[in-house]
Write a structure and sequence with these properties.
0% strand; 217 residues; single chain; 7 helices; mainly alpha
């Protein structure tokens, strides 16, 4: 059950969650830069990467899946609160889309911990299959994030929640992260590089959304 609060505490929580989401991603990518496998790697390479640097891989998973999931729950709750106060059904959909993205990130966290802790280069099939499942879940999560962005922007007509530039950024995110999502869902190395565009937009926009919810709480 999602608890929806109002007032200064909600404003602070929304802003903090938005900034925490971006920080967790940046730190997570930094601590494990070049140490974790990528889409298109062989199962043997995936298992070796996890077995050789388990601490870095686990640290990254906890940050980019665990901490970000918690942040998205708070942002989603903030949207649900704003929707309840304003009677905006589109914002309610956005809030639940954010919550769904958080749930999918949690699934990724569990799967990656299992993959890292059980990595065996001598028998890489299971680890490789888990890694591929994580990427496919990531693709579905990206669709949820696209729905969050599109619905929040649609709910904010006439600047009721987002400023014009914030809405433009949100629409750009929705488009680019949908393309990324297709790439990760299909494990397509032709489309996954779209994440280099969609991820920076995501970090900026979630932080912006959290700040916007803070202004409106």
């Amino acid at each position: 059950m999602t608890v929806i609060a109002t007032g200064p505490a909600t404003a602070t929580a929304s802003r903090t969650a938005g900034y925490t989401h971006a920080t967790a991603w940046i730190v997570g990518l930094t601590v494990a830069w070049g140490a974790t496998p990528e889409v298109g790697d062989t199962h043997a390479r995936i298992a070796t990467a996890y077995a050789d640097r388990p601490v870095q891989a686990i640290a990254q998973a906890l940050l980019v899946h665990g901490v970000t999931a918690a942040s998205l729950v708070v942002v989603g709750s903030g949207l649900l609160g704003w929707a309840r106060r304003t009677g905006n059904t589109t914002a309610r959909f956005a809030g639940w889309a954010g919550t769904a993205a958080a749930a999918l990130a949690s699934v990724q966290l569990v799967l990656e911990l299992i993959a890292v802790l059980g990595a065996d280069p001598a028998s890489p099939g299971r680890t490789g299959a888990l890694f591929e499942a994580i990427q496919r879940v990531d693709g579905v999560k990206m669709f949820a994030l696209a729905a969050l962005a599109a619905a929040a922007c649609a709910a904010s007509r006439h600047g009721s929640l987002l400023r014009r530039w914030e809405a433009v950024t949100g629409w750009a995110l929705a488009a680019t992260i949908t393309a990324s999502g297709i790439g990760y869902l299909l494990l397509s190395t032709a489309l996954t590089p779209m994440a280099f565009v969609s991820l920076p937009l995501l970090l900026v926009w979630i932080a912006t959304l959290g700040a916007a919810l803070g202004r409106r709480s």
